[in-house]
Structures are given as structure tokens and as C-alpha cells.
Amino acid sequence: MCRSCGAIVGAGQTQCGVCGAPTSGQPQPASDQRPQDREAVRFARAVLSRPYKFTIAFLIANIFIFLLMWQSSGLTSHALWVAFPEPVLVAYGAKLNYLIDAPNYQWWRFIAPMFIHVNLIHVMVNMYSLLMVGPFVEKLYGSARFAFFWVVTGIGGLVASYLTVRPQLANGVLARFIFKSDDLPSAGASGALFGLVGVLFVFGIKFRHELPEGFKRAFGTGLLPIILINLFIGFVGRGFIDNAAHLGGLLSGAALALVVDYRRPGDRRAITNFWRALEILMLSLVVFSFYKVARNFNHPVPGVHTLSNANVLVFVNYVNAMNQVQEKASAVIHRNDLSDIASITEKAMQAPAPDERAAELRSKLVIIVSKLADAAAKAGPDPNEAGRPPKLDQKLIDEYDAWRKEYDAWLKSAVKTYSGGH
Known about the structure:
The protein is mostly helical. It folds into 3 domains: 1-48; 53-296, Rhomboid-like fold, CATH 1.20.1540.10; 310-418. It has helices at 35-48, 53-72, 77-81, 86-91, 97-100, 120-141, 143-163, 173-178, 190-206, 213-218, 224-236, 243-259, 273-296, 310-335, 341-350, 356-378, 394-418. Helix 7 packs across helix 12 and helix 15 (341-350) packs antiparallel against helix 16.
């Protein structure tokens, strides 16, 4: 801890990265400091002495909800370290496009996910990041603006995640960095955290002429290595990391910082009614979203079920197996990906079918996927579009699309049957 300004100083550092004061021994007397050093200390003290109550409040809320989710998962070590069951994630408000779309219209899934996490490592990494980044944003901009930033950038990240579930565009390494081929539950505070990083990035550039040297190094272009490292991690883990949510949060935070001013040292003006109203609105949205979560908590969710009896277990296993075959069919059509077809279709055939219609649809799908795979294996690359997968016979694709309509019709009625008719 810096003795001059109170900023956190890393082990082994000889001077504070914010105000430049030495970390060993006593701080220099004011008379021995250069005018710019005294100004840096004054600026840092004025900013860093401000409270950061909403950072702590959001951190506590995330941890509290995480503990509730663990309890709902049976307090098992597997749920703690690997992942909470999908029904638990969905029950607590994870983002799923088909639940946001008609006829469900669960719009609150654009808000609730920024307070829920998948496992212990997920929540620990995000809450550590919040504790490192949040106080700076809240001290610089004030609690009302911080609450506004957190909610709006979190929503921005989730909207980006929603818009990028596009199986037809998830082709190629770069495309899969952003676009997703499957509508899977999405949760976590990382979109809002990237939003706060975007705020500090633009803050450091926008106000660089009035900031002390330490603040210039800490924010603005000084954040580029952190941003690039996190984007690289997202690229490596593009199969399970929601990079669209990260980028959506980052860009929305940067956009907000372009138009929002910060609280300068010595600024004693009371918070305006405008920002107070926005603060109340944002917190009300959060509270209302979790009111909606609570109201829907025990309601059956289409496609997601608790394993209360043998019939439901058979249904869920069958649907999961069919989803994997459909994902493989999409991969064959869009990416000419023929890997693991045999094992995936064999697994689907081994899963018990809940009824005769389900067995008929499964057999039909396996035949269609086999035709698609044979066509993809025989077709050569398009000479006019080097590097792109071959175009398959449109009749095969139309046959698959017709099958999906049949399957969706069966699934809608089956959900009502196996969820007890609710």
C-alpha cells in the first residue's frame, strides 16, 4: 500500500505506479518533491480516498447467488469445481436465446446472467477482477455512474452473445471466435467486467492531458496488454468462452466513456438528479429481473428438466443425443467436418427413445446425416472458392430442413408430455 496516495503496490516495486512515490522508507517531505510529484500525490489521494460501495455490493451479491446455486446443485464437489447442472443455470436466469425469443419472451435473461456463474473457478476469477478494476471506475466516476456502467455494459455483452448464436456463420477459426453454432446457457460477469476495462481504456486516452503520469501508465493504452491477453485466451478457448459477450461489454464500456465525464479531484458538486435517476433505474432493473427469476424458478422450462422420474430421464438423454447429431449435421453442411460421425450416431442409436415417433425421427436423422457425409466426402472443393468446403446437393439440405421441422413439432408436444403437462 502506497503511503502517499493509498494505492495498491505490487511486491518488489520500488515506487508507486500511480503517484510515483517511493515505497521503501518514509515518503518524501513535500518540500523535497517536484511540483509535478506533489500534484500527482494530490490527485491520487483525492480520487483513491473515495468509497467504492457498489463494487463491494455487487461482489457480495455474486457470491451470495453462487452459494444459492451450489445449494440447488446438491452441494456436490463436482458442481463446485466442474459446472452446475444446466437446469440450475437456467433456473437462475442464464441466457438462452430460445427462452428470450417468442413465445417465452424472458427478456430478463439479458440482466440476470451477469450475477450468476458456472463454477467456483469462474466466480473466483471474475470477483477478483471486479475487486481489481471496479474500485478504480467507481472512485473516478462515482457510485451512480458505476452502477450504470455495470448494468448497461453487462446487458451489452449479453445482447452481443444473443446476436452471435448463428450456426450458419460459425465457419472457420476466426468466425468461431465470435459466432456460436449452438444455443447454450451463457452466464457470468465477464461482459460487465470487460465493460469496466473499456471505460478505463477510453478514460486514460480521453483525459490524458490532465492525468498524472501514473494514471496515464495504468489506464488508456497501458491496458492494451491486458485486453490483448484476454482476447488471446478467448481465442484459444473459443469453444467454451463467450467472446462475443466480452467484446460487446468492452465496446459498450468504451462507447459510454466517450460521452460520460468523470468526477475530478476537488469536485464537491452533489450528484445530479439525472444520474441519481439512472442509478435507481439500473438497480430496479436488476431487482426486477431477479423477481422474474424467482417467479419462474419452479416452472418447467422447455427443453430443460429436473430428473424427477425415469421417463423424464429417458427423454432428456434422448434429446441430448439428438442435439449432438444435429450439431454434427450442421458441421458437415457448413464446414465439411466429418470427424466423429460414427461415434455420435452410434451413441444416439443407443439412447432409449421415449416413444415410437421419437425412434422413427432418430432413424430418419441418422440416414440423412449418412447421406450428407457421403456427399461431403465425394464432393471436391469449389475451384472458384479455394479453401471453402464443397457445396452439397441442395436436395439433401432441404431434406434435412424438412426433418428438423418434423422434429421440432414432435419436441413441442413431447415437452408438455414429459414435464407433466404444465
